[in-house]
Amino acid sequence: MTTHRVAFVGTGADPENPSSEGFAMAYQHASAYERLGNCELVGCADIVRENAEAFADRHDIDEDGVFEDYEEMVEAVDPDVVSVCTPPATHADIVVGLAESGVPDAIHCEKPMAMTWGGAKRMAAAAERADVALTFNHMRRFGDPFRDAKALLDDGAIGDLRRIEYSWGNFYDNGTHAIDMCNYFNDEYAPSWVIGQLDYREEEVYFGTHNENQMLASWEYENGVYGMATTGPASEIADGDWRLVGTEGVMDVHLTDEVAVRVRSLADDETESFEYDGLAGEGESCIDRAIADVVQSVETGEESELSARNALNATEIIFAGYESVRRRGRVDLPLDIEDNPLEEMVASGELSPRSSAD
Ligand SMILES: NC(=O)c1ccc[n+]([C@@H]2O[C@H](COP(=O)([O-])OP(=O)(O)OC[C@H]3O[C@@H](n4cnc5c(N)ncnc54)[C@H](O)[C@@H]3O)[C@@H](O)[C@H]2O)c1
């Protein structure tokens, strides 16, 4: 059996007290690799040395594998797989640096892909050039209710898919999970246009990046299926967190107040209900499943469904939605910008959210 050498960039400080100030996601990645039995944790780097030391201590990484600088770490420990768990603004440079180092075979980076659309494209291109398997931690798609909903959809439970709506969270930080899920339901078809409007009056900064308070967006996929997002207070609009509308029925996937899938047939108005205790099985998490998929794809050479290609699909919808707000119009794709329009509208004063310090 091949043993994969795994290293981490950005360990986080405190996995016991997760918050939007820091979840220390690397600890969850580490335990997912550990439970596979074919991975050896060999190194970690964090600009805060004591974070890296505490992580190494917890995960039995030799002190020679502890670094502040990820480039030195990669050079020294020669990893096959690197998990990147730093804030979004740092993802692009670190992933490009890792790919260009020529060392790892695979890089598994936390979501959202990058702070800007240009950064996201740069990461995907660098990985492709270096023949590195680049994946993003859109792990929720491995959750049981989502897998079951997709199987029901594919079995024709609501006829042909016409529209996917999500009413949950925001458009960037957890919107990346939500939109990735819409794309999963719609077999990864690319979007052809996006239109949106947002409200941003109270500062919402997660992991160093601005997120709107409320967003309304819609888009069309190349197969004619429509997508729609209502975030913040507007997420109360719908019953489920995701609603799939088909020619013969409607399916709601609930995540917030309960974990359930409900399928309503238009023909007889009957509702079938499936309820869950959580997203994954006893003692298992979606991150365990995502990392198992990443490691398996390293072994088989087959593209993981968490690939940069799929992540770009979700990321383009996010930045095109923000660009639609900036342009005050529909944005036809492919998206021809490099920046993050929401960040730019805040920087220019076009949007001026009140900070909690005011
Ligand atoms: N998949 C999910 O559901 C989920 C949940 C929470 C957070 N996240 C994502 O995980 C990522 C990390 O979030 P977190 O909550 O673990 O953050 P965190 O603050 O707990 O940890 C990040 C660590 O990165 C280190 N760091 C920053 N820049 C660095 C650099 N250039 N080189 C090395 N280390 C560096 C910091 O010192 C810190 O220890 C973010 O992108 C966030 O959006 C994903």
Report on the architecture of this protein.
- This protein is an alpha/beta fold and 358 residues long.
- The chain folds into 2 domains: 4-139, Rossmann fold, CATH 3.40.50.720; 141-281 and 314-347, 2-Layer Sandwich (Dihydrodipicolinate Reductase, domain 2), CATH 3.30.360.10.
- It has 10 helices and 17 strands.
- It has helices at 25-34, 49-58, 70-77, 88-101, 117-130, 144-154, 175-185, 286-300, 308-327, 341-347; strands at residues 4-9, 39-45, 66-67, 81-84, 106-109, 133-136, 161-167, 191-199, 205-206, 209-210, 214-221, 226-230, 242-246, 249-254, 260-265, 271-275, 331-332.
- The strands form 3 sheets. Strands 16-15-14-13-7-12-11-8-17 form a 9-stranded mixed sheet. Strands 3-2-1-4-5-6 form a 6-stranded parallel sheet, sandwiched between helices. The chain has a two-stranded antiparallel sheet with strand order 9-10.
- A hairpin with a 2-residue loop joins strand 13 (242-246) and strand 14.
- Helix 1 packs across helix 8 (286-300).
- The longest helix has 20 residues, at 308-327.
- It is globular, with a radius of gyration of 20 Å.
- Bound molecules: nicotinamide-adenine-dinucleotide.
- Nicotinamide-adenine-dinucleotide (NAD) is lined by residues 9-13, 22-25, 45-48, 51, 70, 85-88, 90, 110-111, 137, 139, 207.
